[in-house]
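Input for the complex:
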Amino acid sequence: LTAAEPTAFRTTFLELHSWEQAQFFLGLEQAERLTLYTVLTASEVGNFFDDIDDDDQALPEFLAEMPSKFAAKMLTEMYTDNAVDILEHLDKGTINHLLAQMPQQSALDMRRLLHYEDETAGAIMTTEFIAIAADQTLAAAMVALRANAADAELIYYVYVLDQAQRLAGIISLRDLIVNDQQKMVQEIMNERVISVQVTDDQEEVAQTIRDYNFYAIPVTDDENRLLGIITVDDIIDVIDDEAASDYSGLAGVDVEDTSENPLKAAAKRLPWLVTLLFLGMSTASLINHYESLVSEASVLAVFISLITGTAGNAGTQSLAVAVRRLAFPDQARTFLSSLLAEMVTGVVTGLVTGVTITLVVGFWKHSFILGSVIGLAMCCAIIVANLAGSFIPGLMARLGFDPAVASGPFISTLSDLTSVLIYFSIAQYFVTSFVQH
Amino acid sequence: LTAAEPTAFRTTFLELHSWEQAQFFLGLEQAERLTLYTVLTASEVGNFFDDIDDDDQALPEFLAEMPSKFAAKMLTEMYTDNAVDILEHLDKGTINHLLAQMPQQSALDMRRLLHYEDETAGAIMTTEFIAIAADQTLAAAMVALRANAADAELIYYVYVLDQAQRLAGIISLRDLIVNDQQKMVQEIMNERVISVQVTDDQEEVAQTIRDYNFYAIPVTDDENRLLGIITVDDIIDVIDDEAASDYSGLAGVDVEDTSENPLKAAAKRLPWLVTLLFLGMSTASLINHYESLVSEASVLAVFISLITGTAGNAGTQSLAVAVRRLAFPDQARTFLSSLLAEMVTGVVTGLVTGVTITLVVGFWKHSFILGSVIGLAMCCAIIVANLAGSFIPGLMARLGFDPAVASGPFISTLSDLTSVLIYFSIAQYFVTSFVQH
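Predicted:
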């Protein structure tokens, strides 16, 4: 298709939505892509490059295979935030080489954005916004808007600057259109602008945009100068990443690898598995310590996995709630009060589960003493696992670590250790009562 | 504040952003809220009710405490989708009573939206969009837009209808402003409209909006008549809910309960814990079956929790990837090919972990036969757990169940059973070789 009739192809291709163009592009072989670069202009390619997910591993490869002038032009035509997302994946030499071939202003903008730390407002903002002066009529503002609309990423909000280029107000395009065109901008602008600081964490920005249902939010420096805007589509990516990271924390696996090749996937999972294996060895040596007890009452072995498994499940539940609570803080609860609440939950679930298993084991093994040992051990193990699941992520967050490090498997493996310790301590105390022969 | 100087309060309050007004309102006592309803108009109250999270449990209570005329007026002033979200929480009698006091058109719109099934495009769309005819100039369209802009939820996209009220095209406000005002709408409108069907699942809608980076998407019936639009802020809620449900699936707990009281939390977690306890009993009775083997070689008890724990961890990792893959399907992989990939991953992780533990146990217990038994059992248990974690959610999805039902704790508990079976079968076969005395 690409080779035979370039003009017909161009027409069909350009009728597609840019996201569909991107999907088509991603399905091509290298030879076909090289042809594509000759059929389309840099600006047309940049248009759909804006719609390629910036996590895509192949982006640097695409850039490398383009003539470098074409690549520089294409990046200039993209929205600055997306172009910078691509540049971040390249080495320093390539970045400088590309920036050198761009118009000065674009290169300057990108160089500035490249400096902001990852995961801050500055790193995800774009510089293509519309700013106007306060002392003009709406009609004059509309003329300014028309002139700049084509380049802006979102024209729904128009930002009003004072003489010192500080953010003085905001007008929605709706207000600009609906009001009498002879009114002055400063009359109708909203002076209570909700903005974020360029150094703010991207998750705070996401939370603000969600709370206020904004389509975009202005980003300012500490002197309230407008540096850029962050649009809601970038925030959706942040929310996704955040959810994915909570999720992988719970599973002890980097879930970005859904389409990874199986060997790479194994390489990513093994460090976790082997670390936990060695942590699990401490449980094994604890049981080893009680081996004489087990050989005396081998029935104890029957319930090891039941007690560790149930406590692990309870710990995972409480961990999930704790991590979620850290992501969406609840003003009404302090760390201590949620720990206390978790303890009450642990005692209740522990008691119910403990009594249930006491009865089941009591009838099954015709020994309510054995049943009570299992039940008591399970109750205590659940309470401890619940507390650990709730306490550890909170502690990590307080110490400045990522709470997701306290992953689900880690909590389960840790709770195996405490459960076994509780189980055999209790069993040892009562063993003479239920071993008759 | 509220009681003393109503006028001063009004001025201060109305200067706040509607989300801040909502937060203030949610912090009031009932008596204060009742005063507030007299100080503010129904339309002013409706304005910030749009910003109260529709999951808020207190919404029906707020509506009940308002004079019913006031409540009806307020709901009319809200965006239809948000008003309907509130109505859904009320009983039929109250709904009818409120709808009866609304203007006919609003009542009709809401009644229609109430009929759409939960979690479909129809249930989350709003009917406040801007639609214009194709055969007019842009200048005339701008006049129509000005007249309707105040009521629309989002005016960034203007929808173009043909004579039969079918969706014929779309114009962004940007194009409307930038182009020559004497051009005809049909000349510049985009005829390739990406839309969703009213019966589509909300997750499909979310995916489309994310892929295309839209701020809103039109919703049509099967004859392409425009029924409503879905805006990106509603989609953020869908994405959040979806992430929360995947997350709770992995943990076996409803994580919506982060601020629940501890007894309610216990009541929610217990069904899971007790169900899994009974599933765990099958593992216990399996070990019971091998009790004579354990009393003969009590060293076997030492490694039960290590093998079940490690296999459980591996199963959780593979489950997380599988659930994630179902949420973001990968065209390049079929169900079978991802199962195969997971098997390769399982064999590699199983072999590495197995060899590691063989060496550790071999040196620790001075018996490489025992080490090999543990290693072999662990390798097999990991492969089986990996396959189960990958296969079960896919199977559930194919059978039409929610794959999140195959939660993390469920997979771990199931893998306990298979791991123990594998472990003791292998151990029984070799027991004579490592038990000398």
